[in-house]
Input
Amino acid sequence: MNTKIRWIRKNLFKGYFNTALSLSLITFFLWFFYNFFNWLVIDSVLLGDADTCRQASGACLAFIVDKTRFIFFGFYPESETWRPITAIVIFFIIVFYSRLKTRWNRRLLFNWMYCGLVIWLLMRGGYFGLVKVETNNWGGLPLTLMLATVGMIFSYPIGILLAMGRQSKLPLIKYLCIIYIEMIRGVPLISLLFMSSVMMPLFLPEGFSPDKIMRAQGAIIMFISAYMAEVVRGGLQAIPKGQYEAADAMGLTYWQKMKLIILPQALKIVIPPTVNTAIGMFKDTSLVIIIALFDLMYTTKASMQDSNWLGFSVEAYLFVALIYFIFCNLISRMGRLFEKEFGA
Amino acid sequence: MKFWDDQKNREKVYQLLALLAVIGLGLFFYSNTKANLEKQNIATGFSFFDQVAGFEISESLIEYNSEDSYLQALVVGVLNTLKIAIIGNVLAVFLGIFIGVCRLSKNWPLAKLAQGYVEIIRNIPLLLQLFFWYAMFTEIFPGVRQALTPMPGVFLSNRGIMFPSLEYSPVYLYMGVAFFLTMIFGYFLRRYAKKIQDQTGKQIPYVLYILGPLVILPLLIWFIGGSPLTLHLPKLQGFNFTGGISVSPEFLSLLMGLVLYTSAFIAEIVRSGIQSVQKGQEEAAEALGLKSYLVLTLVILPQALRVIIPPLTSQLLNLTKNSSLAVAIAYPDFVNIANTTMNQTGQAIELISLIILVYLTFSLLTSLFMNWFNKKMALVER
Output
């Protein structure tokens, strides 16, 4: 007890200035949470329609309740909602399964491929009596998760290759990699997304044009791999020169050296910045709203424009902010777990 | 020895293959693009620059109307991007340093508040925050007729913030000149004071000497000039305010979103920078009897800056690049105007190349400036 009091005295009430600051901050906290709690719980409307909401002074939770399905799954047919839900559950299971280092082997790779295939078939349909749902109607959380996960799965190895290329002693390959990385890092993601939606169809032969989601996915992969490359480069540079030389002295080829000696160490060091990049990418997927893909952000915006429910944007924004916050937190938790698993 | 056994030869072949692949891809894209453009009857080139743009731009730093050319419109966009980038970067750095220092405060509630701020802001997409602030400014704030007046002459409404503006008078120019000259004088006084301190250890409170003239001289000139003070107050006329200076809700929400978002990242950089300075440095400075703000400004920050500057540079670049999200809330930045132009003319390749070129230039300029600053701050070893 005594130590607690001493701790409080030291950290809250040391001197007049600190006491005043602490008291005013605590008062502010209490005032804020009192009002927020009132708004969110006491005065809020859980059941009812827009008119009941407008009469109440609190949050309009009824709006969120009414729109939850749309925000999460967008224009996916309402009768088929179980399919994206199952897809997300499968996704979570495989992510949860991959948490242990001991399971990181070739079989896991195949498991991921099976899951990806199952998710694709489930979402797309057209087989086994499932109604076919075009990718244009995919939306909400599954789309956001797909853009982020596929983006990460592809940009990580590409980033590693680019980083290796940048460190390469072959001048041509080195400069090609440098030009690519610096070009991409110098421009905003939006310009790449515009490029994918307007310029890509021009680049490709007529008749061969991947759909909008895939093109956006391509732009995200292009963008993130440049950042990933810089993260990995940090790791490669942190490995002592002796490791490279020892591997050479053992007579390992370049690829053996990288695969067996350098990368295992380098990638381990850069787990924290890699996780930060992954979080950044998860947040950046929200930009696809600008080229009119129906991701989580789009469905939220669209539900606010429902003429029955005008004027509850704060509730909707807070709701979707909470979803993003939870996922970003999950990613950073996973990162900390990997750090522990790999003993970084 | 066979050709393939020589590593030099192998390297040459690999590089040649890489080069051929890149060239091949380039040619593939080029021929497709050419065929596609011919089919769609789009002429390449920048001749559309001279055509009449035909769209209005809601805010501009230079004269612009819809009769002007596309080139003029694009210049307006570049200037608007520069405006948001410069103001945003300056504010974000100050706020970031402040929050970073708060996070390390010995006051527990303050440190926790700063930590909560950083955690929340960093884990929510910037675009969502922009939408949120934009909704705040356009939906929550009252209409022009019920505008809030926090201060006389200042109006807050869903059309943005209106300030009174000063009518220009040449006296202001003289005041500015006086202020500037005093600053120059102050700079030399500071050098002199430093020299004296180095030689004799005596401190000259040069800040105090300068502060007086800095305020009094311009004021004096103002009185002598007949104290001109004509304010243009914003007045409600019809559906909007006229007169005064107005800051649009688009600009405000973009600025607020960018500054709050980036400052959370800068705060973390500042915190790790300060923590990288060994504790002995702080203790030694305290043992010398330095006051706590002097410990911070003379001992901790100069050392922390070396760790802070490189990642800070990339945050400044991020803010500049993120300002392109303006397109989502209709602030007329460069990407927004280029996008409109693209939709009207169909010159996708030219305009996207232009976007890339402009942002690469911004990045390069910022990098150059920060590298110069970094060199200035770097450890000078014997």
User: Anything to note?
Assistant: Chain B touches chain A through 51 residues (CB under 8 Å). The CA atoms of residues 32 and 126 of chain B lie 36 Å apart. The beta strands of chain B are 148-151, 154-157, 160-163, 165-166, 231-232, 235-237, 240-242, 245-247.
